[in-house]
Amino acid sequence: MTAGTGIRVSEPPSHPAPRKLAGPRFRPGESAFRLLLLCCLAVGIIFLGVLITYVLVEAWPRLDSRLWENFPSIRRPERAGAQSAIFGTIWVIAFTALFCLPTGIMAAIYLEEYADQNRWYNRMIELNIQNLAAVPSIIYGILGLGLLARELSLGTTVLTASLTLSLLVLPVVIIASREAIRAVPQSIRQASLALGATQWQTIWRQVLPAAVPGIATGSILALSRAIGEAAPLLLLGAVTYVAFNPEGLESAYTVLPIQIFGWISQSREEFHHLAAAGIVILLAILLLMNAAAIWLRNRFSKRW
Amino acid sequence: MTDDAIPAQNTDDAHALPLAVGDRRRGRPEPSLNDPVFHISDLDVWYGDHQAVRDVTMLIGRRQITAMIGPSGCGKSTVIRCFNRMNDLIPGARVTGKVAYHGENLYDADVDPIEVRQRIGMVFQKPNPFPKSIYDNIAYGPRVNGMKGNMDDLVEEALTGAALWDEVKDKLKHSALALSGGQQQRLCIARAIAVRPEVILMDEPCSALDPIATARIEDLMAELAADFTIVIVTHNMQQAARISDYTAFFTADVDDKGVRHGRLVEYDTTVKIFENPADQRTEDYITGRFG
């Protein structure tokens, strides 16, 4: 006991000092694992890089305004363009978004906020939605042809294509939106309900605004899948060499993946350059959509 | 328990937590159950097949602070959630018996749970402000309830009532999530009183807060009891002793299958419960021999 301070000072230790801490040690396992992870990442990045470079090099001779100013032509590749396919893609994707986003988000709200998970039919719906997300897209094409185009006499039009693609990506939209809605903390819902808000007020004013970033990300992934689909549209009359832009839902149409497919199957070299240029346009539209989603997400999540 | 860390000689310090029974009740009228708001009788709560609470009967007095204490799993949170039908939100929850609010059973088929929650507000264990501005947090309740009047005045009144106005009046448009934990909890109290309820239920409102923030909330509760009926669930026995007029002690019976059923053991004035409990189990709990 040291007088005055009231602090007990212990005697110097009589036992031997502990072993000194060693310096950093080389652990081969750690480094090897890290290297393995990097290799896996590299596979994806390198292939993407090679792909984009190859397409750009191929497309270079034809990457000019002819591409979006002219319509396709079989006989004169030097004057051929993809305007009808670009407009067709925009029309089809816009209506796909219009049909599948509200439906998918509202279905997700029902499943997350209203459905009683203890009921067998709700569990069955859930299971089936997950299965539907894995169904090959050509099956949806057959469904669209048989049911929409023929049975309902909608014909092979922009409307049929949008509805078919909506059905195709609907499960993805539902699953992504459910994840986003589920990620909103339960405490927010409780706080709102405890203030006397109704369930709908709670969902509309608290849950959905908080879930928008996640829903936007999932939706854009779904639409990106739809924009690249060729298989179901092959069955639905998206023919190549359409020399006009769609004028409405009843219009005939073509889309970029089909146009690219058509050009690639031509034997003349010039058409292959055209196909590559079409791919660049498709990628550009995809990037624009992604940028829009990121902007939307930041706008909603940075406020608080 | 966090408040034990504060030495007893610091009691003149405004932020220390005095330990004596009724210390934060000074200046308040004598406890009384003559004007009950709730008359709970034979309340049973089931979660699926499990009976979480059995046979609770008690009165809650108007403008009294009623504390519910007891060990974990004794059903006190379950009981408080029956008072504004928050248990409705738990799938499989079932309530029998009566929770009479001014003579009207809240669980009658013709009672609208939305209106119940407008009259009987709730503050939760973890502060849960909305990810919005301070102003919008307060204004949300009046807006969804369609209340008329000047919203700015209402927000100021609610924040003043929760002793938060001076701290936030210059940053009403800032995010509520930027406030400290204690401020967030007072914001949640302000949000609850903005809809002008008669009763405020508090489910362990201080368990996520430090001792200074806890002391502020306790002061606030004593002030609010002049206008509101307060029911508080707390893990902190000293807190119940300091602030409440009445204390209900719950415990859990364990049946032969090892399943816990909550029940009300003793309910009386706080002074009686802490100084002269009638039941041996109450005495064991408050003297720290059990729980």
TrEMBL record, chain A:
Membrane association type: Multi-pass membrane protein
SUPFAM superfamilies: MetI-like
Coiled coil: none
Subcellular localization, as worded in the UniProt entry: Cell membrane
Chief location bin: membrane
NCBIfam families with a match to the protein in the record: 3a0107s02c (TIGR00974)
Protein name, as recorded: Phosphate transport system permease protein PstA
Gene source species: Streptomyces cupreus
TrEMBL record, chain B:
GO cellular component: membrane
Molecular function (Gene Ontology), one example: ATP binding
Keyword check for Nucleotidyltransferase: no
Classification via Gene3D superfamilies: P-loop containing nucleotide triphosphate hydrolases
PROSITE patterns found in the cross-reference section: ABC_TRANSPORTER_1, ABC_TRANSPORTER_2
PANTHER family the record matches: ABC TRANSPORTER I FAMILY MEMBER 17 (PTHR43423)
Protein name in the entry: Phosphate ABC transporter ATP-binding protein
Gene label: pstB
